[in-house]
Design brief:
- With 43 residues, the chain is mostly helical.
- 95% of the residues lie in helices and 0% in strands.
- The protein has 1 helix and no strands.
- It is rod-shaped and about 65 Å long.
- The N and C termini lie far apart (64 Å).
Length: 43
């Protein structure tokens, strides 16, 4: 029973980390796109 609880906590923690990483990657992608757009418009 303790192992099950431990695994359940661990999986929810990993899922949270995955969602946070996905959000950070999305923000980074938007940053890169905006920088590239600005660079293109300067020419």
């Amino acid at each position: 029973m303790q192992n099950y609880i431990k695994i359940k906590k661990e999986s929810s923690y990993n899922e949270m980390l995955y969602l946070v990483k996905k959000q950070i990657d999305k923000q980074f992608g938007k940053l890169i796109k905006s920088v590239m757009r600005q660079k293109k418009n300067r020419r």
